[in-house]
Amino acid sequence: MRISFIGAGRLASQLAPALAAHHTIDCVYSRDLAKAQSLATRVNALACNDLAAIPVNTDLVIIAVSDRAIAEVVAALHQHLPHTLIVHTSGSTAMSVLSAIHPRAGVFYPLQTFSFERATAWEQTPLLIEAVQDADLASLHSLATALSPRVYHYTSAQRLSLHLAAVFACNFSNYCYDMAKQILDAQHADFGLLYPLMLETAHKATQADPKTMQTGPAMRGDDAIIAMHQTMLEQAGQTDLLATYQLLSQQIGQRHPV
């Protein structure tokens, strides 16, 4: 399959090389030509900052840009490639954003967090696919199974629920790690001492219902410890952390009434 990428960010920088092992990457587009060139060099592709430069014989275009730019991009692509399969990689954008403009529309959503620095373990990554046409869904399924055994035909509504859940499980939990480090940095304590606890908590959450794994003073209704923690945060002037601590403690208490 001949594939072109729109975008050269974190997701594209991981997905394009993975697909290049099995397919031809025709072109990498980015408004920043230097970024397009950097990724294109890795996958032996053409780099461009003009959508009209994408080869007309490309079989698949993968849009890997911010959600707010998807509709504008597909409208421009439809003019240039009216018969090409075009997919986006968003968890929160409905397929209808594409299909309202382009008849051969689909979704290829990796349920994972991406960075430039860390290689993606594709064999462990769930891939959620969707397409308007059955033949295109079959093509996306074949494309996905070459990367991962965990391929799911999910609707836009199901995908959105997973994206929302991922914000809690990934983005919000990472911010909790950030808050924990702020507390320790203020006392010149070693954040690394929390690593075993963080890993064990994540491991337990994958082995059982997270509700049954909940621990801590809020779950136990230990008001004395909660008050002490809140005083520490208040005296340290960490009012944003205090507000989060109070809200989460309240929510945990409601979830686990003593």
Describe this structure in words.
- The structure is a single chain.
- The chain is α/β, with parallel strands linked by helices and 258 residues long.
- The chain has two domains: 2-154, NAD(P)-binding Rossmann-like Domain (Rossmann fold, 3-Layer(aba) Sandwich), CATH 3.40.50.720; 160-255, ProC-like, C-terminal domain (N-(1-d-carboxylethyl)-l-norvaline Dehydrogenase, domain 2), CATH 1.10.1040.20.
- The protein has helices at residues 10-20, 33-43, 70-80, 96-99, 134-145, 156-186, 195-207, 210-213, 217-220, 223-235, 239-255; strands spanning 2-6, 24-29, 46-48, 60-63, 85-88, 105-110, 127-131, 151-153.
- Strands 3-2-1-4-5-6-7-8 form an eight-stranded mixed sheet, with helices on both faces.
- Helix 5 links the parallel strand 7 and strand 8.
- Helix 10 packs antiparallel against helix 11.
- The protein is elongated and about 70 Å long.
- The mean pLDDT is 96.
- It comes from Vitreoscilla massiliensis.
